[in-house]
Amino acid sequence: MYYDPPYFLLVAGLFASITSGLAFDATLKQSVNEWARNRSTQTLENVQGSALRLTFLGICAGICVFLASGVQIFGFPTGIAYGIAALLTLMTGLLVWWQLGKNLVQLQQGGSKALDLDSFG
């Protein structure tokens, strides 16, 4: 039996990822700016609050649906497609979240110059 590829879910997953990403960007900027103004005892690691986690999970969910739909377009069954997409999304999401934490610690310890990507020497 042949099923139509889930083109709608492909677009919906991409849209969810982009809108969640914009919300993530705004939330992260607001949190870091608030921390920079106050420089309180709160560390930048604590900036990763529930609002930031929720938007990041929105990005991951959208990407998972997008990837699974893309894999289904190539003829894979739904279960296998979502298994592949969930594994890829989980591993990538964990790496990105870990790197964000490292960057926030680096920002806290050395200021914005610590994140200067143009100076490698």
UniProtKB/TrEMBL annotation:
Keywords of this entry: Membrane, Transmembrane, Transmembrane helix
Keyword check for Membrane: yes
Superkingdom, taxonomy of origin: Bacteria
Listed transmembrane segments: 6-28, 49-74, 80-98
Protein's recorded name: Uncharacterized protein
Native source species: Drouetiella hepatica Uher 2000/2452
Organismal lineage: Bacteria, Bacillati, Cyanobacteriota, Cyanophyceae, Oculatellales
